[in-house]
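[INFO] parsing input record for Bile acid:sodium symporter
[DEBUG] input buffer:
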Amino acid sequence: MPSVLASLSRLAFLSRFKPDNFTLVLLATVGVATLLPCTGQVAVVLGDFTTFIIGLLFFLHGAKLSRQAVIAGITHWRLHLLVLCSTFVLFPILGLAFKPLALQLLTPDLYVGLLFLCMLPSTVQSSIALTAMGRGNVPAAVCSASASNFLGIFITPLLVSAFVVQGHVERSTGDAVLAIVLQLLVPFLAGQLLRPVIGTWIDRHKPALKYVDQGSILLVIYTAFSAAVVEGLWHKLSPTVLVTLGVICCVLLAVVLAVTMYASRKLGFSREDEVTIVFCGSKKSLASGVPMAKVLFATSSLGMVILPIMLFHQIQLMVCSVMAQRFAQRRPD
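[DEBUG] output buffer:
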């Protein structure tokens, strides 16, 4: 009997690391792009349709965001400042610090993707979900993650233009910001303005609308990897390079988790706020990163650029899910 219980306990622990359904579909999409890449006029039409779907995605993000939730958390400025510093200062510094080692172990395009990953905003859905699971400050998490995504529309292209090698960036700083404003911010603000009209319907259909969110990501990944496969992506990457990229992503996440946890305790935040800071400050958004990469980078390098984001996304979900359960088991202050 004890051996059976021990086996069940081990299975329960390992199940926390099992990829979710979306990750499996994402991997299947990469497989389809590898075997059946889209080319020619089909790729052009699919690219235009993807641009439309991304605009719809950010329109729905704007319509889903509750102003009451933002107002409830906006006064906690010290927490938000720490999260933003982790997202847009600590991460980019670490990305630049990894440069000498990463350029020796990874391809130049993969390092650009790693650096781009470090300049992305935080996630919204998973940050809030993990904060709630870990018994953190949920209203502050809603405000902080939303502010990170909103500011990322401006900050990410500025950081990319300043620190990413110019040969990899398709647009100038001004053009990049303008393109992201038109494709992402304008639909987002339109959704916010129409929330009084359509907010109730949006809230009632949130489970169904997640398919627009996930579908837009899968479309961009399919078109990006199709172009990359045509350019010879898998001939340029070895299994050793992929494993090395995974290890670097793990180290990057571990350092940020340690720094955010230490800083939140050193600055005297409550345990609920610590959970919020750790989860909001350590996340990087696949939902925002993939559309931004499509706007900022040349099509020929897009597959390599988004590969680190995809890998980091799965690692952060698995690690932080375990951490959230540990946080939930702690006694309150």
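[INFO] The radius of gyration is 20 Å.
[INFO] shutting down worker
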